[in-house]
Design goal:
173 residues, 2 domains, 6 helices, 56% helix
Length: 173
């Protein structure tokens, strides 16, 4: 019997496709080995089954890593204190507010959008070390928050503002 003149399209699991290059290269090898359609299909089945299994294992490991990182942020002694009123890192979280203020300062919405997309795609936004560095940098380039009149400043021992340094005797508004 042996190899056919041309192999019929491979039967694959639903949702799975063979890359054209892989299919062509595999067909060449199958032809060299003089495999019948059924024999070649068995190898395609074996390959796709293990490719799908490997992909799933990789995705499961990546998902677990990102979950562990997010838990690391919440449990971090410094970052864990920066949750919002609902106990999450939502829009009112000091961490998110500081980050967004720094990103707004770039005055380039496309760049900010691309950066956020990259953080989501790569998972960098879940990595505690990355978040710590980004928060530290954002804190350095953003202004502090305002306080209600009469409320003591949380930065009382900090360096004076430029205005206060130039006019130290001028009463505060």
């Amino acid at each position: 019997m042996g190899a056919p003149e041309a192999y019929s399209p491979w039967k694959l699991q639903e949702g799975y496709e063979l890359d054209t290059g892989v299919s062509e290269a595999g067909s060449k090898i199958f032809k060299e080995l003089n495999l019948t359609q059924d024999q070649a299909q068995k190898l395609v089945d074996f390959y796709s089954e293990h490719a799908i299994k490997s992909s799933k294992e990789i995705m499961d490991a990546w998902t677990a890593t990102r979950k562990e990182w997010r838990e690391g942020i919440v449990n971090d002694p410094q970052l864990g204190k920066l949750v919002g009123s609902n106990g999450n890192f939502g829009p009112d979280s000091p961490l998110v507010v500081t980050f967004n203020r720094a990103m707004d300062g770039l005055q380039n919405p496309k760049l900010v959008s691309d950066f956020k997309d990259a953080m989501e795609l790569t998972g960098a936004g879940d990595n505690p070390a990355f978040v710590k560095v980004l928060y530290a940098l954002a804190s350095k380039v953003t202004e502090g928050t305002t306080y209600a009149k009469g409320e003591p400043s949380k930065t009382a021992n900090a360096r004076p503002t430029a205005g206060a340094a130039l006019y130290p005797n001028l009463p505060a508004a």
